[in-house]
Structures are given as structure tokens and as C-alpha cells.
Amino acid sequence: MEENKIILKLPSRFCPPAAYYRMVALNPDATTVVCGGERFDKRRKDAHRMTVADTRGELELTVPIAKPYGRTWGDTAVSRHGDWWAVMWTALESAYGRTPFFEFYADDFRPLILGVEEYGTVGELNFRFDLAIRRALGLTSPVVYSPVESEPQPVELWMPEPYWQVRADRLGFIPNLSILDLIFNLGPETALLWR
Question: Are 104 and 187 in contact (CB under 8 A)?
Fold first, then answer.
């Protein structure tokens, strides 16, 4: 079997915006390496935070991290303190429960949030979400998780055409939300935006 020659080294991110997965979709023959070994930087909130649209606009949902912090995101532990996972799932249900495709994908994402005690690190959590997101988007290119310390390539900026969002009539179109916004609002039609 011939090995893929194209490699995308992407950062470990928690439910990132669509630009992240657009890079994967536009390179179907590439192997994606998710860099869990990216150096820990407290300022990089996107490694453990996603932005969704709720009834009042943008809402940031954060996976708390435990101290002491690791050297990389791959060895920085997810906090077990409090019931943040239940709060996060309730926020997602509130934000997307009335979208056309929430009920079709909820069972894929609910166990990832409510079963958070299975994950030791932010890198592991992000990789599990990445695999579920790829399944939902129908992305079948190879993907591997690398805990080795490395520097990923930057994700290209991309602004999709405004697409249907459940609260756009009141809030207008909100760009650069988590890929979950696209999945829950558009479902399988999400792939049409990659062009």
C-alpha cells in the first residue's frame, strides 16, 4: 500500500471553526497529524474553548484545565472539578436543540462531553472530538494523533458564505463559530461550503 505523501500538521483544537476542516476536505489524499505535542501556552484558549451561538449571540464554552499545567497540550490534564461537562452539554442543547440536525448528531457528541472522565489530557479530548467531527462531515482521509512536541502549520483563514443559522433572523449571521454550528444547522450539506 502506497503511503500518502501530503501531510497536514494541524494544531490540537477543541471543536474549531470550519476553516480547520476545510483544509482537510480540500486535501482528501493527505494524512492529518493532529499535534497534541504543541507547546502549552495559557493564552491559546482555542485549544480548550469553542464558540457557539446561543439565544443572545456568541457564547464561549471552555474545558477547564488542571494545575499543574503540562509542557504541551498533550500532557495538560482536563479538570475534573465541578460539573462543567453537564453545564456544557446543557448549553449546547439550549443553543442547538432546535436546529434541523441536532437530534441526528447529538448521540455522537453527548458521550464525548458527559464521559469526560475518560480523558486524561486536553490533547486526548480534542482528538476524540476531532474523530467524531470527521465522521459527521464524511471526511475519510487518514488522521493520527502525535503527542511528540512539534509546531503545527497555521490554519488558513477562511470566511464561509453566510449559511442558514437557527437564530439569524434575530442575531444576523455570526461567522467563525465552532464547526458544530455548521454540523447542527446544515448537517450533510456542510460539505457544499468547502468549495
Answer: yes
By residue count, the chain amounts to: 195
Q: What is the pTM of this model?
A: 0.92
Grid cell of 103 as nine digits = 437530534
CB-side neighbour CA atoms (13 Å) of 120 = 5
Please report where in the chains the cell 439550549 appears, as a residue.
Answer: 94
| 7-34 confidence digits (pLDDT tens) | 899 999 999 999 999 999 999 999 999 9
And the C-alpha cell for 146? 502525535
Integer CA distances (angstroms), 77 to 39, 65, 84, 88, 129, in order? 14, 6, 14, 18, 16
User: Taking a C-beta distance cutoff of 8 angstroms, is the pair 183, 137 a contact?
Assistant: yes
| Rounded Cα gap, residues 66 and 139, in angstroms | 32
The CA distance from 168 to 174, in Å, is 8
Strand partners of residue 61: 50
Other C-beta atoms lying within 10 Å of the C-beta of residue 102: 20
